[in-house]
Predict the 3D structure of the following.
Amino acid sequence: METKFCEFCGNKVAIDAVLCPKCGKQLEELKTETSNSNPQVVINNSNTINGAYERKQCDKWIALLLCIFLGVFGGHKFYEGKAGMGVLYLFTVGLFGIGVIVDFITILCRPNPYYV
Ligand SMILES: [Zn+2]
């Protein structure tokens, strides 16, 4: 076991001892909680309060594939976060197929990624 000598009385104490068992003097600085000394600075970033960031970013090709394979179930609508329309597609078989065809062309003409 590693030992050190008390700087007050010269007693041999354990290397990690904080207090000397003989004289009771403090040998090491008590470890204090450092997390409170560095409070996190909350930056109010007004740039995030922007319409473009609040909109959902969609991948054109994922939406297109969902439209092709799951279009009649509203798959691409659910992907775009339009759950209401998705349910509508689900019960009307993609607005009787017309909605799916229209959406397929619409998504095809969109840039990648696109925002809804
Ligand atoms: Zn001591």
Observations:
- The pocket of zinc ion is lined by residues 6, 8-9, 11, 20, 22-23, 25 (CB under 6 Å).
